Amino acid sequence: MLDTKNLTLKKFQENFDFIEAKMKDSQIYKDALDSFVKYMPSYAFTDDQKALAYSDFMAKTFLGVFQSAVQTALTIDQNEVATRDAQNQSALGILGKKKEVAMLSNQVKESFFKIQASKMQTAQLQAQALQDKIKAEVLHKSANDNAQINKANCMVSYQNVLSNANKPDLLKSYDMQQTTVNALKAIGEAPISDYTDEWKKVQIPDYNTDFDTTILEIYATKSVIAIDEVIGFHIVTSIELVEVEWDFGDGEVSSQKDNILKSFNKEGSYNVRLKALVEVENKDYVNDKSQDKFVMKEYFRDLEILVC
Questions:
Q1: What superfamily would CATH give domain 214-307?
Q2: Which among 122, 153, 222, 255 would be 20 to 30 A from 83, CA to CA?
Q3: What is the DSSP string of the chain?
């Protein structure tokens, strides 16, 4: 487990040593020491007095240097802690956004698939209804044909019973021959409608899962900042980014994908733009194998930063 207390103490010691060394090497410190040594005449003071004065000078100088070093080291440490805290807060916020984006993406996919299933179900029901209608008409035609066949059979049987060589005119008087012929002709004449046009209207969609639920957003830790204030820029995405390019609107660009720290040295409104390249499947590859299977697609996102 990392000992944060020792880490903080070590960092403070490093900052203190750095500030103290810089102050000792400064020209002001050297000039003060030189003026004390060069311009204190030996004939005006005894050795004891000079030693006492020198020790007093060194004590006061050291105390001033020490206080300045301590204060500066503490300020640096506090600023670093505050910066780390701000970065952690930003990271937590972005993590929450990523979870929210993932949840929204899943909801979009779920809604899309439900709509797809509903469309398929509607088309299938439409086709089933048309099929049932055709079945009913075929059954009606078959029943009609069977009735005409039975009628003709009955006529033929009746004629066989009544006909004999002694009464040839009997059949003519009842006009049974023509009735039998008409019944036979009626077989198969019951019409069935042509449903070609109706069948064309029924289109059962494929269950398509090729649905673009791409989510790509950019966020800044703050949108209104002071001059030279450092803020972080982050990307929230549901896809893998091959390459990115940040344009901060002040002439500076970056190809870093995340956790970008940036400050602006002039007042004004800056339009920050992200260009992202994503590898997607080439739909034309299915019909033309000479083409690349994957192609690059560009996405652009913009964000406004106000510097006061």
A1: Immunoglobulins (2.60.40.10)
A2: 255
A3: ---HHHHHHHHHHHHHHHHHHHHHTSHHHHHHHHHHHHSS-TTTS-HHHHHHHHHHHHHHHHHHHHHHHHHHHHHHHHHHHHHHHHHHHHHHHHHHHHHHHHHHHHHHHHHHHHHHHHHHHHHHHHHHHHHHHHHHHHHHHHHHHHHHHHHHHHHHHHHHHH--TT-THHHHHHTHHHHHHHHHHTTT-S-----HHHHHH--------------EEEEES-SEE-TT--EEEEEEESS--SEEEEE-SSS-EE---S-EEE--SS-EEEEEEEEEEEEEE-GGGGT-TTS-SEEEEEEEEEEEEEE-
Mean pLDDT of 201-205: 57
pLDDT of residue 112: 65
Query: Rounded mean pLDDT of the chain?
Result: 71
Structure confidence at residue 7 (pLDDT): 46
Query: Rounded mean pLDDT of 255-260?
Result: 82
